[in-house]
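Supplementary Note 2. Why include the ligand at all?

Several targets in our set were suspected to adopt different conformations when bound, so apo predictions alone were not considered sufficient. For every target with a known small-molecule partner we therefore ran a joint prediction. The input for fe (ii) ion is given below.
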Amino acid sequence: MSNEIIEKFQKAELLLNNNAFSEIKGNNDYDYLINELIEYIEENENDQYIVTTQTIRNYQDNERQRIHEEIKENPKTREIRANQETPYEIVMDISNKSYTDGDINDLNKYFNDRYTKLKKIIQENPEFKKITDLKNTKANIENLTSIGIVNSINNTKNGHRIIEIEDPTGTGTVLVLKDLEDLYESSMTLVKDEVIGVSGSSNGTLIRADDIVHPGIQRRIVDKKMDFSIVFISDVHIGSKMFDEKAFNRFIKWINGNYGDEKQQDLANDVKYLVIGGDLVDGIGVYPNQEKELKIKDIYEQYEEAARLLGDVTDIPIILSPGNHDATRLAEPQPAITEKYAKDLCNQKNIEMVSNPSIVNLDNIKVQVYHGRSFDDIVMAMNGYTHADTDKIMKLLLEKRHLAPIYGERTPLASEFEDYMVIEDIPDILHTGHVHINSHTKYKGVHMINSGTFQKQTEFQKIYNIVPTCGQIPVITHGALQILDFNE
Ligand SMILES: [Fe+2]
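The joint prediction is reproduced in token form.
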């Protein structure tokens, strides 16, 4: 490889100094870089015969300027955007609501809040209006209904299922007989720490379940009117060697009305909002040996680069929520990324930094943004689920009315006084990311979107045969979904 690099430059009558050589060798697309660099020198610095790192910097600046000229907003798009209203409201943001100091009493308050909120939702079902406190279920009771948090789920030797539940008064042991096939089947999707309603009968020791209900959501019959488009992206991973900058630039070029066929340009002109669902940058120290896979090794520089790349999108609001790679508290709910790390982004007028999760109302379309860290826990807990099953996972979370029901596993949850991960209001759109594989389904009238990634397959993903959907971006336009592909 070393000789090959030197020979290529020699053929162009150029010499490489040591630092420039190391930098080119370290580039994972060095063939492309060499050709581009030689072309740049011939056109712009033809009196040079030694290539230094400064030559590379000059080439990069020149390239950035060229791309900027290419992707900056189309005049037609600018005019449309200058004449349109883009009202929005942040309905839920926890950034300034974090009070906990990790006390055990906080944990009790947290679970009490989770229980109270979800109990209220379950009690919208008339059958659960009147419930028996779990402390009073240790008697013979024919028809009872109770509501509790799932403490544990186990199988008996005979293949039945035992679920321990708890409410503020005590605990109850729920038996699901394997002969009740439908109930048994649906109990397979139960997870620890979710809140459920149980109806059945008690023999003083066990509650034999006839039915188990989730808080659930009502099916929506009529869609909300929507006469514009919203674009959803996540997991851009700026700073990673595998960040697909070319695809991302094509995306920005499109959103600014300069890329694609006439239909795609019309769609761009219809876009009123861009939502980013976390992992804008790759971060540092997120997993062992990450630095080997980083092109930009400094977190501040990663956000500077992000600001440069997003800086050409100026006339539509950008809603920016963090993920587990971003520079904010790792425990969920995650406060918004602040000026401390991302000064330029925070100063960009059309960028609205929000927490993860958060709810935004975009011209009357309610969007729940959640990065999706809890998907890791759901995949671990649920038999037969993989990270590609985000449609199934999002459906479960909507039924459980909780974004991260399992406590104390991979998803670090901050035990706030209030459980902000409860889905109190049903959104029109649930936007998630994290798994790098996009998906879209409509469930009971709610668009459930996972917005994929702009990061090409990493070494880790290769080992596990995970194929990311890089550069394939979901757009909700006038109530329907379209996927745009920015790969060439
Ligand atoms: Fe990610």
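Residues 235, 279, 323, 325, 434, 436 surround fe (ii) ion (CB under 6 Å). The radius of gyration is 26 Å. Comparable summaries for the other entries are listed in the accompanying table.
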